[in-house]
Here is the input.
Amino acid sequence: MTGAGQVLILAGRFDPTCDLVVEELNRRAVPVFRADMAEFPLRLTLVASLSGNRWHGTLNNDRRTLDLASVRSVYYRRPTRPKFPEQMTPEARKVAETEARWGFGGLLSALSCRWLPPPGKAADAEYKPLQLRIAAEAGLSVPRTLITNDPNAARDFADSIGEPLLYKPFFHVRGTLHGQTAAVYASIVNPNDLPHPDIATTAHLFQEWVPKAYEVRLTAVGGRIFAAKIHADSDAGRIDWRSDYVSHSYETCEPPPEVAAGVLRMLDRLGLPYGAFDFVVTPEGDWRFLEVNPSGQYGFIEQATGLPITAAICDYLEGNGP
Here is the structure.
């Protein structure tokens, strides 16, 4: 879909990655309406009616009004949850949150336009077990993996591999500890510490440790691929580079043709136009798939390497390309 129309951006108020997209669309003179779900219903008003087979109406905040019929695309960048009056009872708030999700969120998902990414498909793609299966089906190399809450099964898995294991959380685990921001990253598990009783408390994901020459953040947008090597220069960064950005250096690279093809097959099967892929490249040059984030950050890669990822995203939101 090409031609005139506004780009609706749904994102948190403070999002530097989103700011890059807004700035580029402004430079291209593409009209943008930016909002956060947290503005609804106190500072964001929705009026919509079904006429024929399309929803018509407006979305209004204290700055601008969006004509819903004019939306050509939606950039969905981790908006925050709706906020309600403080005086609401917990029971009323629960009902209001449910209605906002299925009413306001449902109306947005019913707009006849392209999404980056489609929220439903993006939510499905967050499941790591699904990612790993689809990656293998798409021809990507996946490390040996175990999901279990059985401490003895974890020990048996470690014995079968004969090397240290990598423990990875299934989802982003962030919060505060002793008044400071804390997060759970991938970590090495010594087989001698297994079996461990804590494994029985919930589902755990263990993978074989893959020797690294370097890691790669590969960003795919609308069929285009941008890849950058990540060289970590700290012990923590070599286990999980997200735990220590300061120690990294970056350089652009080209993925092997079979990896590029597998990435695009994987996105096609997940129904996603965008994915931020993480790979380990072994000293022998083998690319091993770790995970894909359907709405992952890319600004730090673009800043370090000059790869034109923002431009590719804006091309897609404008309606250019597949």
